[in-house]
Amino acid sequence: MLKGILSVSGQPGLFKMVAESKNNIIIESLETLKRMPVHSTSKVSALEDIAIYTENGDVPLKDIFKAIYDKENGGPAINPKSTANELKSYFEKLSLIMIKIGVYISGYKKFYLV
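Below the sequence we write its predicted structure tokens.
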């Protein structure tokens, strides 16, 4: 599901890699389909490589999304503009319990940016 999807530091949205050369890669926005080069000095993260720290160890991002999908039966998830307590409660009810100390509300909201 997340294979080939990239996040580029300083660029809004998600991308897929179209081509690569010696000093850069060409990416395409999933939203606008606009292509642009990304140089080797930019920070590029593959979503399939991202994991979330939980009380039970690191959990891949795809497993977090699967838990949300299963909880909502494929429907929409909680509104990211919900209150801090509502967001914490929502994620604690998932089968993957998020670590309670050191997780800021902005961390929970980032799930909706992906």
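The chain has two domains: 5-47, 51-112.
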